[in-house]
Amino acid sequence: MKRIGVIGAGFAGLAAADALRKGGVEVSVFEARDRVGGRVWSVPFGDGAVIERGAEFILPGYEVMNELASRFGIPLVLKGTPYGRRVPVGEESVSQANLEDAFGRIAAAGGADRASAAEVIGGLGLDSRLESLIRTRVAISNGHPADDLEASVLDEGASTFGDFDNHTLEGGNMRLAQALAAELGPAVHLSEPVRRVRWSDQGAGIATDRGEIQVDAVVVAIPTAPLAEIEFDPPLDGPTADALRAVTYGQNSKLFLRMGSPAPPSAVMSVAGHFWTYTQLSATGEPAPFLTGYTGTSSAIEALGGSDDPERWVTAVLELRDDLDLDPESALLSSWHDDPWVRGSYSARTLSSPMRDDDLAKPIGSLHFAGEHTAGEWHGLMEGALRSGRRAADQVLRLGVPLR
Fold first, then answer.
1. Residue 135 exposed, middle or buried by CB count within 10 Å (0-12, 13-18, 19+)
2. Is 322's pLDDT higher than 50?
């Protein structure tokens, strides 16, 4: 039986391992963390509530995620949050009619060759208040300044405008990772980061602090920063290696605050503060007892106090959402730029370092690459991670890697 090594037990790695196992292959999955899920991390918060410290929204078109949730009997929960309609209040408020007009102009604008998202927004003919709102929202969603984002981000999932339903998994999105890992059983090795990969066209050796195994091929399903710290022998070279080194990650942070009394779903934005806040429904269909704040770009994170001190951001949220009964003492911050196994939230399409979608999905010898950054139009999303894992597994199975 063929044996394939998978590096990373996030959604991409687990989806790859799942597909490989179904294809009759023996798999070994190596994960640096003491848990599965990667940037999908669901944790308790208060009395019975579950928050998503990482990836959260299940958006329209998530076919693979819906399929897997159904397979494992994990219900989807309607969030109710108006994800595509984040509105400012007070002095920053805009009319619904003007907001609809802006959405229509964005949909009709299309991308321009080498034009940045900021340039496209600036050419929509919006008034200054609306232009600032849209520009800020795009920067937050991508975790990167709009003047260095490709115009194509205006059509991608994280930046979607308008009205549509969105969901999470009952009990947390991490349940899907746990379900996949449970089927794989002892094939998943936690707290075991890969240190070295000796590879050729015929196979590879994967070395961790606990030893080394020989495999017929490897699926590398981790972000590019920790990938750069693995010793590859021979070193990675060529178009795929160059494309991996060029990936830029957006920077985002979340703030969670408990609420003393329920509030219906909402999405309220602070343009000046460079963050948005939202409430949602719980698994019972009742309002969830917490508020989430979300910001993006390194400068915005620092302006709100960085990733260690929530006080400044809490104060700004209390001022923005004076309609809610918030508990400032309950604040919990979550960020990924300071996580050594990621160092960013998700890949961003930048002009300064463009994503090379085709190259990112190409193997190097016996090495195959997965992860949201290799998912083309689905990059940055849970669905993209799952699809990339299946695509990498399919590459391995179709190539018919030779037995050792």
1. buried
2. yes
